[in-house]
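From the shared-data thread, chain only:
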Amino acid sequence: MKEFTKEEISLCKQIAEKHRKVLRYGDWWKGKGEDVFLMNTLGGKLYPENQHKDIIPLWTISDCLEFLKERYDDVNLGGIQSKWEVQIYDAYDKVRHPKYLEDVRGKTPSEALLKAVLAVVEEK
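Structure, as tokens:
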């Protein structure tokens, strides 16, 4: 089971306030006062329309990359001095840091990507 840090869950909660990711089979989520669950069709944990207000969809690294790559030409994740950083490139390999994506860094790869996703949804 993927371990989500408190910071990652907090970032997912902030993202959910601005942008509702539709839960699909295989997605992770956290219910109010509940542990983290993997979305499946057999566990009896599915709520109507997968959008119950108390559910926090938990974003994985691949969810974040997919979301960012839909909006930018090239998204890179790299480690710098014990931190992780998201870099956005345009089609001509010139570094493009939109104002709201400057200095997006985190302690874990997931944290850095979640901060980038949060910055994008807050800017929109």
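The first helix runs from residue 6 to 18.
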